[in-house]
Design goal:
This protein is α/β, with parallel strands linked by helices. It contains 14 helices and 19 strands. The structure holds ligand TNX. The site of ligand TNX has 10 residues, from loops. InterPro entries: Beta_hexosaminidase_sua/sub, GH, Glyco_hydro_20_cat, Hex-like_dom2, HEX_bac_N.
Length: 512
């Protein structure tokens, strides 16, 4: 059964009508350089899988061609929207802007046989490279649709991040938040503070080795993501979660003594120092780090953490938040912070808050989150009991490499149904649709050390989060049917199989 995740605004299958067939005469027919760039990115995959030449050309598209057109009004003015028509007369994707055109190609990717995911043209599908006759009109609900990867607790190599980016693009997620620093590791090269990685990247949880991204590695990730319309959101977690930085530079510590590198999984024990004696070093650190990371990052955002600073006295916390957010703004970025940052009433205007309490808000979380909106910003929702991909699955299944994976502090294990069955509006009282910039699914890696383990925890629950972030709300006429989602998920599973993704075959899904 053909289907698309996230569910498009409208999807009509023309049963009985002739399908589209890709053959050795097929071409990508585009209008202009932007459409050509989108075509080349998608053509890379299709050529590798099919062995077909598939030139990208300008002109009139024919019955065996895929037409990719950018035109004003083609997707109703939505820059990420698109329309797609497929059938015996060809495939035509049209959009107002390049981003929408690209998301159209990712819908086409899901409508093609799963062998389209293969990197070598070793096996053509038995029925040929066909696409069912269909009409799609689509645009996203939320502008920010993200995943977060914690590369600090365990490090993931550049190639693994690129693969992750590709899987995100299949689901039309458009932001990858990289949690680059924490107590256990500093994972991004900072030229002016070389020991941040020299010492600060030397280990990880459990002491299984360290690692970091050189400036060129990071540029490579940014560029690969940009070609897939995914914005990299770097996080430098401050002022807590900083043991790795503190271990590298004694002058950042109030007592002037660098702590040992940390390989455990506790939180809330480290902090930058707010004391005037350390002001010179601390401000130089904040200014240099935010400047260098900002220079490497074309996207608008710099995430400054702000969570769980339990070792920072409250007045010091507010002081440090003031100093670090000013440094980020001076570096030209819009700040994102975990909801605790909303304790400050002096945030730079437009600062974005990331909510990580539960579907039922706990303690001060709702008040802190509203504080961002009161200060001219918007909100990213990551309710931990439904959107945290490091929460255990029910039944605590054995991971792909043996042993069990995940944490359970967020109200216990999280099923696929729970990841799918929540509505963003109404979680935080007073936060409505237009206050919500978007949705993000974080994966923290205290218990996750390898790619198969990462994939097992992330898939399939991330598909549920992607649908919540993209597809129309029930209030806006969308439908949320678990059975329909499960059927489309089974189809997506055939693509994940070809990609070699070690997803968890949860019950209740008719996996092939
Ligand atoms: C809380 S969520 C954290 C992280 C942990 C995570 C584990 C948040 C802002 N902070 O430091 O890794 O729980 O699930």
């Amino acid at each position: 059964m053909p289907g698309i995740i996230p569910a498009p605004t409208s999807f009509e299958l023309h049963e009985g009508a002739a399908p589209f067939r890709l053959d050795d005469g097929s071409r990508f027919v585009v209008n202009g350089a932007e459409a050509a760039a989108v075509a080349e990115t998608f053509a890379g995959r299709v050529r590798a899988a099919t062995g077909l030449e598939l030139p990208v050309v300008e002109g009139e598209a024919g019955a065996s061609d895929i037409g990719l057109v950018i035109a004003d009004g083609a997707s109703g003015g939505s820059p990420e929207g698109y329309t797609l028509e497929s059938g015996g007369d060809g495939v035509r994707i049209a959009a107002d802007a390049a981003a929408g055109l690209f998301w159209g190609t990712q819908s086409l990717r899901q409508l093609l046989p799963p062998e389209i995911e293969r990197a070598d043209a070793s096996r053509a599908p038995s029925g040929g490279w066909t696409v069912p006759a269909a009409s799609v009109a689509d645009s996203p609900r939320f502008a920010y649709r993200g995943a977060m990867l914690d590369v600090a607790r365990h490090f993931f190599a550049v190639e693994d991040v690129l693969d992750f980016v590709d899987r995100l693009s299949l689901l039309k997620l458009n932001a990858l938040h990289l949690h680059l620093t924490d107590d256990q590791g500093w994972r991004i090269e900072i030229e002016s503070w070389p020991e941040l990685t020299g010492i600060g990247a030397s280990t990880s949880v459990g002491g299984v080795g360290g690692g970091f991204y050189t400036m060129d590695d990071y540029r490579c990730i940014v560029e690969y993501a940009a070609a897939r319309f995914i914005t990299i959101v770097p996080e430098i977690d401050l002022p807590g979660h900083t043991n790795a930085a503190l271990s590298a530079y004694p002058e950042l510590n109030c007592d002037g003594v660098a702590p040992e590198p940390y390989e455990g999984v506790e939180v809330g024990f480290s902090s930058l120092c707010a004391s005037p004696e350390r002001a010179e070093a601390t401000d130089r650190f904040l200014i240099d780090v935010t400047r260098e990371v900002a220079e490497l990052t074309p996207g608008p955002w710099l995430h400054l953490g702000g969570d769980e600073s339990l070792a920072t006295p409250h007045a010091d916390y507010l002081d440090l938040v003031h100093r670090m957010t000013r440094a980020a703004v001076a570096a030209g970025k819009t700040v994102i912070g975990w909801h605790e940052l909303g304790a400050s009433t002096e945030l730079p205007r437009g600062t974005v808050g990331q909510y990580w309490s539960h579907v039922e808000p706990e303690a001060d979380a709702a008040r802190f989150t509203r504080s961002f909106v009161e200060q001219g910003g918007r909100v990213i929702l990551s309710p931990a009991d439904v959107a945290y991909l490091d929460m255990k699955y029910p039944g605590d299944p054995e991971g792909p490499l043996g042993g069990t994976l995940g944490l359970d502090w967020a109200k216990g294990p999280t099923s696929l149904e729970e990841a799918y069955g929540w509505e963003p509006v109404g979680i935080v009282p007073g936060i409505g649709e237009s206050d919500i910039l978007g949705i993000e699914a974080p994966v923290w890696t205290e218990t996750i050390a390898t790619v198969p383990e990462l994939e097992f925890m992330v898939f399939p629950r991330i598909a549920a989060i992607a649908e919540i972030a993209w597809s129309p709300s029930v209030a806006a006429g969308g439908s949320r049917s678990e059975a329909d989602f499960a059927a489309r998920l089974a189809a997506l599973g055939t693509h994940l199989d070809e990609l070699g993704v070690a997803y968890h075959r949860v019950g209740g899904v008719p996996w092939a």
